[in-house]
Amino acid sequence: MRSVQPDQTAKARIRDAAILRFAQDGLEASVRSIAADAGVSAGLILHHFGSRAGLRQACDDHVQAAIRDSKSVVMAPVGAPAALLAQLAQLEGYAALVGYVLRCLQAGGELTTRLVDGMVADAVEYLDQGVEAGTISPSRDEAARARLLTDFALGSLLLNLPAGREPIDLDELPGWFAAYSERILLPTLELFTEPLLTDSSLLDAYLGSAERTTP
Amino acid sequence: MRSVQPDQTAKARIRDAAILRFAQDGLEASVRSIAADAGVSAGLILHHFGSRAGLRQACDDHVQAAIRDSKSVVMAPVGAPAALLAQLAQLEGYAALVGYVLRCLQAGGELTTRLVDGMVADAVEYLDQGVEAGTISPSRDEAARARLLTDFALGSLLLNLPAGREPIDLDELPGWFAAYSERILLPTLELFTEPLLTDSSLLDAYLGSAERTTP
DNA sequence: CGCTCCACTGAACACCCGTTTAGCGTACTG
DNA sequence: CAGTACGCTAAACGGGTGTTCAGTGGAGCG
Description:
2 copies of one chain form a homodimer.
Chain A: H1 10-25, H2 31-38, H3 42-49, H4 52-69, H5 81-90, H6 94-107, H7 110-133, H8 142-160, H9 173-193, H10 201-213
Chain A binds a DNA duplex through helix 3.
């Protein structure tokens, strides 16, 4: 085969360049721009990955594998997942992965569903530990609560993400994450410590009606 | 001028068709597809709006005006804004407006910021009424709490939105909103009624450190 | 009537995209 | 040393895009 090491092949270089471009410019980044970044021709990308969709799939697979290898690092205390992302994005090379995941979440699709489901599963586990430790109160539906908290954390993060469609400066990501997590820390802590509603009449009413419909 | 009434002119017809198309296919819908829907040539759109960006601007302005006219209907009890959207989307013609707003929120940009800020302002007002009525507990930072709750509600709504980039069936929107709001109702009510955290040690720690840094 | 104005069209332009194809050069292989 | 397989490139293809432009036809007006 080639004389060089199995990694840092042109194929891997293209994939890494693609993840970086997709993270910076969005998932609509052109094959030609990726080719220029990788220092190859556009044709070579199609030669290796078959099509643009094949390249996207390869990126998805690689990112998913990277997440699996450094498991459970992405989920965290629900109030401050952004703080962890800030640290993660500072690690060499990981900023591109974080940016790519954000773009995927933004765009939706199959990978998004899998990623979110994975985070929900992690949240279930984390919340369960809290309940057993006595720091988190139990829920009537642990799965639904984990899903809700994950959606809240991820959704508001995406909604506040600076770049709608325009390029993201990956160097600024960690600082942005830190500022965002600090900004939401007080209201989040307050919301999770002191009940928003002063009495349980609304919850009781719902539980009463639900009981009547599904006895 | 023209013989027909000032409304239902070709220009207005193009704008309405554009809002509908943008809502269904996303904000990247082509000028030609909109022209076909409106029954005019692509050139006429450019003639009336100057450019594709001009058409987008006209749509933004029209949607924003429509929201201003039917004010405060979009914001609601934080746990169930989707239920109101479901009702709103059933109204004749309003489904396209709701879909267009969702696309804008998805894509980010200037209109998004203005829309979210408006909803936050409404949330401040609504929460204030609850505090005065005694149903909602006061906050240390009312503005930050309103922002957080709005981000949570909107963000998780967008994250759960079925269409990543593919066309939305506007007829299915009301049903989807209703199902979504019902799905999150129990965990939301629970979260807002019974504290997630069993004690206030985390909040106290934050308040203590904040007090020390900004005495 | 002739004139002008204007909504409006259809074809063309220039550009970007993903993809195809023909071919080049080199490093293995028999 | 020929043969061949393969990484790789450059150019072109076909289709979609926003936009331009010359021109048409009808309504209002002096």
